[in-house]
Design a protein that fits this description.
The complex is a heterodimer of chains A (598) and B (159). Chain A is α/β, with parallel strands linked by helices and 598 residues long. Chain A has 20 helices and 21 strands. Chain A has a 21-stranded mixed β-sheet. In chain A, helix 1 packs parallel to helix 3, helix 8 runs parallel beside helix 9 (243-252) and helix 12 (329-336) packs parallel to helix 13. Chain A is globular, with a radius of gyration of 27 Å. Chain A starts with 22 loop residues before the first helix and ends with a strand. Chain B has 159 residues and is mainly alpha-helical. Chain B is built from eight helices and three strands, in the order E-E-H-H-E-H-H-H-H-H-H. Chain B has helices spanning 25-28, 32-39, 53-70, 76-87, 97-107, 110-124, 129-136, 144-157; strands at 10-14, 20-24, 46-47. The N and C termini of chain B lie far apart (63 Å). The chains are: A alpha/beta (598), B mainly alpha (159). Chains A and B meet through helix 1, helix 2, helix 3, strand 1 and helix 4 of A and helix 5, helix 6, helix 7 and helix 8 of B.
Chain lengths: 598, 159
């Protein structure tokens, strides 16, 4: 603003010019900046800049993420964020997946949906993980949110095909219906044919995933639905669909990018199929016509003679899920050798070390590997070991995430992985036998896990197992500075182990421990850290009521739940299951009789 | 003024600090404010009380480029690259995105508001709260207790 102004211009002495970010001007433009901030980290930071930013951010937050449904009440969340379009809610702790959380524990969607129904008329998306959602809740969704588009339910329970039918029928803008590893409450005979309830018109469906819905349905209705869903990109069907029907679906939806086959066998038992033709060649032509498939899953009840049908798409696949397919190495090899572009691969350990070696030879771009156990018990044969892990580490240097179940492991293989795969963000090794040492040296597995935390500088998630002393935990505490999630099973020597972790892992958010010898003194050593964590789970450790009560009394905003399997167990000194989490609210009042809140 | 077969109407604008600019009328229509002034027949030069010459020069150039893109003289990709690298200088810490955003807001130029908003958002992504305050020269007007409460709510509930 120069001083040689002619009159009439708006420039003038600087004191007359409003500072660049006077409240008025700023609030007007702030929303045009905030609309492009989507991550919750950034939005949380923006909300702390100053009061007007807090207000503008609260008005414009569209995606609401709630990591623990009991940490905040629906009312408080809604009061702050008035214009939410998408909600992600997480409920039970992860060990619920291993049946450690008794049925009926909590995480009910009901109080959330009731409040959201009246406050978020423009809600479009709901994603729930490990929550209990009833058919009535589904009905409330369908009637309260006229613009509702996306429903994702992951590891949820409480609902049945009755609720699904209501969603199918009433949600006219439905784009995504993803049901992933849910427990559906139907009795086989009571199941409703919900697939038939989608409206007869062209739909806006883009994704339909229902492989976990066990009940049968009208296949013709599904075929017709797929035909009138031109935007459908992802379809994962259940085991009631066999290859003959799969072909029909693929013909109706040539634009599919993600396909979950049902049962990968003929609908007609016996050689050659009931139709007398060669269905495996027909299936081959279905895959050969696909130009867009990048992700394949399903393969339940797989009959290996059908596998060659997928060869035409192997080279373009970036994701392949064989975790339900009982395949040997010899059955896997001819498929995997075509999959040069694979980035994600899930498989059963039936393929053995030899199968994994074949993966390592071809899939040099692999980012994520999960090897699941066919038989998840301590004494099972188990056919993958350190040999497979070593091979993968040598062939797949870009690996970011691994989940590996095995019976035998060596430190050397784990160390090799820590050096060959420096980009690892997730390392979950589950040596199923309890307290198993290094298979060759007989040493504890301390050095292997130590190398992982030392060398993998981006590591945020770690699961440990095998024979581990306090040394392993010392390493984790010393080097695992970015670790947010730690899972410990059957490991450790003394309370010192837990102390190392609590004192060292400054970013730790989620800690789940089972069957490890940590007691009250270790628990109490962490008092200054528990408000910094989302939750702590400890089961079958050495905790007592007294220790847990001390924690509860020291930290008033920590909800300390002692969970028993039955009400009768509730009188002992010994605490079998402890689940504690920080919360902005008073402790919940919806707990079942077997949960005691201290 | 003579009109040629492709009539090019020119408008005159005056920045807040008195400098005059000549702009293609069609280009100037990118601004709702100017569009209204032109349609109402306001006399030249049209005064822009809150946009200084430096900023106005950049904005005018961006309008000209958009016009070029509209006419097919440059591609959309070329326009976007210019906007990002020259106009908003998104990659530089002292880039002009904030000035452009304020001016675009005053001028009611939706396209530029979005572009500048996005560039700023991209720049402040991953910044700490203090860094954002510094960048915008904003003072923290929270009471200490208030701020702690928000911080706690964010960390415990919404993260």
């Amino acid at each position: 603003m120069s001083e040689e102004d002619e009159g009439g211009g708006g420039g003038g002495p600087e004191s007359d010019i409003a500072p660049p970010f006077s409240d008025q001007v700023l609030e007007n433009v702030l929303e045009s900046v905030l609309q492009f901030l989507t991550s919750r980290r950034d939005r949380n930071a923006a909300s702390l800049v100053c009061r007007s930013w807090y207000r503008a951010e609260a008005r414009t937050r569209r995606d609401l993420f709630i990591g623990n449904c009991y940490a905040v009440s629906p009312r408080r969340a809604i009061r702050r964020f008035s214009c939410v379009r998408a909600v992600v809610l997480k409920g039970k702790p992860r060990f619920a997946d291993f049946s450690l959380v008794p049925h009926g524990w909590g995480a009910h969607f009901y109080p959330w949906v009731v409040d959201m129904a009246s406050s978020y008329p423009f809600l479009e998306k709901i994603c729930l993980k490990r929550m209990t959602i009833k058919d009535d809740d589904l009905s409330l969704i369908a009637q309260s949110f006229p613009f509702f588009k996306d429903l994702s339910l992951i590891c949820c329970d409480g609902f049945s095909t009755v609720g699904l039918a209501i969603i199918a029928e009433k949600c006219r803008c439905l784009r995504v219906l993803d049901l992933i590893e849910d427990y559906i409450e139907d009795e086989e005979d009571d199941a409703v044919d919900w697939i038939s309830k989608f409206p007869e018109t062209t739909t806006t469906l883009e994704s339909l995933v229902f492989d976990c819905v066990g009940s049968a349905f009208n296949f013709d209705a599904l075929e017709a639905l797929v035909s009138r869903s031109p935007r459908l990109r992802q379809l994962r069907v259940n085991h009631h669909v066999a290859v003959e029907q799969l072909r029909r679906l693929m013909a109706r939806a040539p634009q599919l990018t993600h396909l979950g086959t049902g049962a990968f066998r003929s609908a007609f038992p016996g050689p050659g199929g009931g139709g007398g033709g060669e269905p495996e060649f027909d299936l081959l032509s279905s895959f050969a016509s696909s130009k867009s498939l990048v992700c394949l899953s399903g393969f339940r009840e797989v009959e290996p003679e059908y596998l060659p049908a997928i060869y035409p798409v192997c080279a373009t696949l970036t994701s392949l899920n064989f975790s339900y397919a009982y395949l040997t190495a010899d059955e896997l090899k001819p498929v995997i050798c075509h999959c040069h572009n694979l980035q994600t691969f899930w498989v059963l350990d039936t393929v053995g070390d030899e199968g994994l070696q074949a993966v390592a030879e071809t899939c040099s771009d692999l980012r994520e590997l999960r090897v699941f156990p066919l038989d998840a018990t301590e004494d099972s044969e188990g056919s993958v070991s350190d040999i497979g892990l070593q091979a993968i580490s040598e062939g797949c240097p870009k690996l970011r995430s691994i989940l590996y179940f095995c019976q035998r492991m060596t430190n050397a293989a784990v160390v090799a992985m820590s050096k060959n795969c420096p980009d690892l963000v997730v390392f979950r090794l589950c040596i199923m036998g309890r307290h198993r040492p290094d298979r060759i040296t007989g040493e504890p597995m301390d050095e292997g896990f130590g190398a992982i935390v030392m060398n993998c500088k981006k590591l945020t998630r770690l699961s440990v197992s095998g024979l581990l002393t306090d040394k392993a935990f010392e390493y984790i505490g010393k080097y695992g500075k970015l670790v947010r999630t730690l899972s410990v099973a059957f490991a450790g020597d003394s309370d010192l182990g837990l102390r190392y972790v609590l004192e060292g892992c400054s970013r730790l958010q989620k800690l789940e421990i089972r069957d490890s010898p940590f007691g009250d003194s270790a628990l109490l050593s962490g008092l200054q850290y528990y408000y910094h964590m989302r939750f702590l789970w400890m089961s079958s450790c050495k905790l007592s009521i007294r220790g847990c009560r001390d924690v509860a009394q020291s930290l008033p905003h920590l909800v300390v739940e002692v969970i028993n399997d039955t009400v009768e167990d509730g009188d002992t000194e010994n605490v079998e299951k402890l689940y504690m989490y920080r919360s902005l609210e008073v402790p919940r009042d919806d707990m079942p009789p077997f949960v005691k809140i201290l | 003024m003579e009109t040629s077969t492709c009539s090019k109407k020119i408008v005159q604008l005056r920045s807040s600090d008195g400098q005059l600019f000549e702009v293609d009328e069609e280009a100037a229509m990118s601004s709702e404010i100017l569009k209204n002034m032109i349609e109402m027949g306001m006399p030249s030069p049209l005064p822009l009380y809150e946009v200084d010459a430096t900023t106005l020069a950049m904005i005018v150039e961006s309008w000209n480029r958009r016009l070029q893109e509209k006419r097919g003289e440059i591609t959309e990709a070329e326009l976007e690259r210019w906007e990002e690298e020259e106009l908003l200088k998104s990659k530089e810490p002292d880039g002009d995105a904030i000035c452009v955003l304020l001016a675009a807001n005053y001028l009611e130029d939706e396209h530029l508001i979005d572009r500048a908003g996005e560039a700023i958002a991209h720049h402040i992504k991953d910044m700490t709260v203090e860094e954002v305050r510094d960048y915008f020269e904003i003072e923290n007007d929270f009471e200490r207790e208030e701020e702690e409460k928000v911080f706690q709510q964010n960390a415990w509930a919404f993260h």
